[in-house]
Automatic annotation (TrEMBL):
The keyword Ligase does not apply. Keywords: Cell cycle, Cell division, Coiled coil, Cytoplasm, Septation. This is Cell division protein ZapA. One of its GO terms (biological process) is FtsZ-dependent cytokinesis. It is found in: Cytoplasm. It comes from the Bacteria. It comes from Geobacillus genomosp. 3.
Length: 91
């Protein structure tokens, strides 16, 4: 046990109710759920023939893709900043 208190939040994603337990604030959990819900609706509009499990996987893959691109960009920028700071330290 890490000592962090857990929060239980009821959310609705793509018409289904879920209780999410986490250490983040209720507002953050609701924001994440709303993001997933919006993405599922977005992909459903583009692919109306997909059943819910396939839609959920497509949504997860796209969100993971966005996350990994942002993570790579963050790492690139962090390295660039480190190099800049290291260059300033040499002065």
């Amino acid at each position: 046990m890490t000592g962090e208190s857990k929060t239980r939040v009821s959310v609705r994603i793509y018409g289904q109710d879920y209780t999410i337990v986490g250490t983040e604030s209720p507002a953050h959990i609701r924001l994440v759920a709303a993001f997933v819900d919006d993405k599922m609706h977005e992909f459903s509009e583009k692919n109306p023939m997909l059943d819910v499990p396939k839609l959920a996987v497509l949504t997860a893959v796209n969100i993971a893709n966005e996350y990994l691109k942002l993570k790579e960009e963050y790492q690139r920028l962090a390295e660039k900043l480190k190099q800049k700071k290291d260059g300033e330290d040499d002065d």
